[in-house]
Amino acid sequence: MYLHHLTVQAFGPFARTEDVDFDALTSAGLFLLRGDTGAGKTSILDAVCFALYGTVPGIRPTHRLRSDHAPVDTRTRVVLEFSAAGRRMRITRTPKQTYPSVRAKNGTATAEATAQLHERTGTADDPAAWEPVCAKPEEACREIEAVLGLSKEQFCQVVLLPQGDFAKFLRADAKDRASLLRRLFDTGRFQELQNWLTTRSKTTKKDLDEVAAAVQQLSERIDQAAGPSPDQDVRPEAEHPVDALSWAQGLLAHAHAAQIAALADEEGSDAAHQKAKQDHHSAVELKTRQHQHSQALEKRALLDHKATDHPRLREQLEKGLRAEPLRPLLDGLERSILALHNAHTAEETARTLLEAAHTYAQTPQLQAAVEQHHAERGRLQGLVPDEERHAQLAAQMGELSQKEEQAQADYDDAAQWLETWPALEAEHTGRVEAMAKAADQLPQLERDIQSLETQLTAARTRDTLAALLATAEETETKREAAALHAKKDWLDLRERRLDGMAGELAAELKHGQACSVCGSSVHPAPAQLRPDQPTREDEEQARATHEQAETSHSKASRARSDLAEQHAQALGTAGPTPPDQLELHLQAAHSAHQAACDQADKLPLTQEELARLRHECNTRTQQHQEAKDRLTECQTRHKALAQQQHTISLTLDAARGSAATIGDRMSELTQAAEHLAGAIEAAQTTTATTDRHLDARTTADDAARDAGFSTREEAAAVLQPPALLQQWSHELQQWEKDNAVITDTLDTPALLEAAAQPPADPQAAGDALLQAEARMKNTAGASQQARDRYTALTGLVAVLETHLADLEPLQARYALIDRLAGVASATITANTRSMELEAYVLAARLEEIADAANVRLQAMSSDRYLLVHSDEKDAGRRGRLKAGLGLRILDNWTGTERETSTLSGGETFTASLALALGLADVVTQEAGGRSLGTLFIDEGFGSLDEQNLQEVMDVLDQLRAGNRAVGIVSHVAELGRRIPSQLSVMKHRNGSTLRPLAAADL
After folding, report:
1. 20 beta partners
2. pTM of the model
3. Do residues 320 and 718 make contact, with C-beta atoms less than 8 angstroms apart?
């Protein structure tokens, strides 16, 4: 995998767009990322990891990737161009971030994370053509992992050797080391296999226990199904399930013999029950026939008793049937009598409604009165239009009165409003002029507010900077004094060292060696060291203290100068006016501006109100004149209509009489004529009804004589209700039928034979039947119980045979799987290493890593140190890994092994770097052996001395073999002099920037 180009925008410490050309930077194979602490060197590696996997190394959240220095309208974006597995690809990512939005309620909206992956598919026509691969973050991660062959964890461990993580793996305990190795080599499948074996062992044991329990339960069920028996064998114990089969088969044979015996008893009881049933049926049948014969004799006696009243009943029935044809004539005569009475009553009622002069008048006189009433009603009909005209005139006069009142009210209202108009017009005109003047003053007031706000901000800044400036001046003075004091201490110490230099040189002399001053190998009187003689290290420390004090003084001086410049600018803008006074002026300006705005806002409405009032004045003037004209017209028309109404009233009063209206008078005449007509009709009806009554009486008398009766009253006396006649006839007919049936019954031979026999006793036969039936049920129950017992035992013995057949192979399978699970889980002595399966695999990987690391560690430590894998368990450590993941250091100079924690800082870095590189080699090989063209090493070189640094650099030079590029992230000055190809990360107040450095720039 090779990196070609990286672009970051608003990412981390980089406020704007920064580019990294890896092709140019890695041309020499070894390059350096340098810069001050916190400038953003590691952020470049974060950008690479974010572009590839959508997250950054470690646990830093992705929502904090956006630069705090970036403008709000600049989106965070990372673009990385890389090649791997023969494919050149470009990934563009943006994290989830907020941005300004005019549509959002709170002014900001949230953009979700995006990713766009392209692949270069250069052709002859377009060598730099890019084709999209996917446009979703999840799909891009899967595609990149497939191309690189590395997960994010593996990539960060192999390609981005992270800051501060070198020594973590070296000094980690077995649990932490196993956690990292498990993620890198995906050994979870071995743990899953171990868990599967354990689960399988438990499942097989459970199955075995279930089969054994099933055999025991079947034995109990067989014992229960067989029931109690004196000669039954004892059920075998649960520890010997095989013996249960022979015991169960013996019970099955005994149940079969019992079934055959019960079946024979059942057949004998059935035959006895059939005979008792037949005897009971014969006794019941005889008892029934004897009872029928006795009932027939009783009915014969009852029929003979009823026959004594039959002559009288037949005579009444004959007379009633003769008089029945006269019933309609007699009923018609009764109806004519009732109709004649009703007619007389109706005539009397009708005559009571007539006038006294017509109460006893004959029909012709009544008819003449009716004609007279009709003539008078016709005359009144001609006066109905005059009455209607009289009512119309009254209504018109009422409407005119209402219109006159409305016209008078409109006239008064308009006159009252017009009286107030001059004062109202003057008031609104003055308000419009005042509001227009306030609107003209708004621009000047706004300029005054803006000027005061600027001056107030500058005044506050002026006062703040004044306090900061005083503090800065005091700090500068203190640091200047500290720098002078440190310089004086350094010069004093240097002078003391020079004064005692002879003793320092004499202390280095050895017998037989030439003096570095005089060259003599004989030293007769060497100078003595002073008790307080400063050393070279003391002088260097004092000089370093002096340089630090000078640097601190320079920084304080620059800070004071910047504050003084800013204070002068603020003072020039704000002047000497205090902020409190400026705030009062600003509040007054805001109040004046608000008052003017309020006045200006009301101007359009006030102008509209004035225009409306002027329009209303014109309308009111016109309404005043129109109301006056309508009032005059109404008064004239009302006088003319009143004259017409008086003339018509004289004629109508004479025609109405005592009635209220012509219609009421016509109704009176109509009602009187109707009463006369009713009386005439009632008199005519009485005459016709009398004639019909005489005819009905004559016809009834003639029909009674023809039917054999002397008078119609005699015929009416013998009339009976038709239902009673029918009842008498039915009783006589039914007696004849019953008499015939009883005679036939008493003559039946079977009944005569039954009557001749002794009385039957069905109760005794029934008791015998019940006893036979009870015995049959008992034998049937015993037979069914024997059959059920035999059937149940047959099924249970078959199931028992099946379970016993499965038991032996299940025991063998459990023994095998339980041993495998114990070995994989290190719970049995067969696992001589006391290592679980996953720990064993991880230990093998750790041995490979240690072997690969030792190749470089020997070179970096001058063949002194080797990493040794240890199978021992950590002291005091409990856990399922048991042992196998320990690391110790072998010191070839002393031949002893010791803990890695005993290494010095530089030695720890060297061993950690070698271990990290070895881990990268093994992980790369595990991932398919794909070439890693780019490798980054983040920090740690500051702990090396010059010799160790040279040895480490030699190993890093060897990593460049195979066209590999190695990037070192460090701020160590010595590396800056050794590595010509560099990328400088420069820290600024408004965000960091990148600048590539070549050999000519160093």
Report:
1. 6
2. 0.42
3. yes
